[in-house]
Amino acid sequence: MVKALRSLVSEVWADTDTLDTVAVPAPRATPPGAHIAVHQVSHQFAQAQGGHLPVLDHVSLQVQPGEFVALLGPSGCGKSTLLRLVAGLEAPTTGQITQDGQPITRPDPSRIVVFQDPTLFPWRTVRDNVALGLQARKVPQAQYTRVDAALELVGLSEFAASYPHQLSGGMAQRAALARALVNEPQLLILDEPLGKLDSLTRLSMQGELLKLWQKAGFSVLLVTHDVEEALFLANRVVVFSPRPARTLTELPVDLPYPRHRSDPRFVQLRQQALRELGLSDVGA
Fold first, then answer.
1. Would residue 211 count as lying in a domain?
2. In this structure, which of 119, 156, 212, 219 has its CB flanked by the most CB atoms within 10 Å?
3. Which pTM value belongs to this model?
4. What is the mean pLDDT, run by run of 10 residues, along the chain of 284 residues?
5. Half-sphere exposure at residue 117, Cβ-oriented, CA atoms within 13 angstroms
6. Residue 239 sits in a domain of what CATH number?
């Protein structure tokens, strides 16, 4: 895997693409990504004053091996809760979630979550932060070359000895991605990972994330509030209702890569997603 990661690096970082489009090679014929099935999942939280707060209402969806699926919906509708359930951090109140046919009952290194906040430990170097997952799993030292390969893949080799306070926002998020990639995940779970970045850095990181996904072939489940980001990255966009979240529609993004935000079909899909969300396209 380390050699494979290194062989990808020059291709991933060789080109300087525009912010509107990114050239992406075709996916692998047999992607190593996980198949995720969410079947009739409902979830609720107990409230301090008694009673329960419903968050998810009979949600069903699938992520095919190597597929990139984005979740769109109003703030607080339950999207991030669904990610936690898929990650195995919580169990659904009712329904079932499976990975490759097996019930998800606990966290597993084959499913890695990247949050909006990179959550890097300030007293550890970038390299040591990336190595955390390997240390927690007691991976043999001989395999720690995976850390260097992951840093190279996200373009942070020169900053391996730096500390988090020395990184820009985009670089910190790259470090968080490297920490996920070092575990060789089958499913990358992304909870608004680019949400705190400035607009230019966010556009650049979208292109970089797209390249990493297409090269590595893992499955991706992304939560975002950015309609264009969802359409630019994903094979399929699932639109949720306000809480408790129900699936309103699924939009297959029938556009080849590289994608252009000015493409008439892209604009049409954007307008359709906004309508499903109950939003006007004016000024959006």
1. yes
2. 219
3. 0.84
4. 47 42 45 91 90 94 97 93 96 97 94 90 94 81 82 89 93 90 92 88 89 91 95 97 94 93 95 89 49
5. 3
6. 3.40.50.300
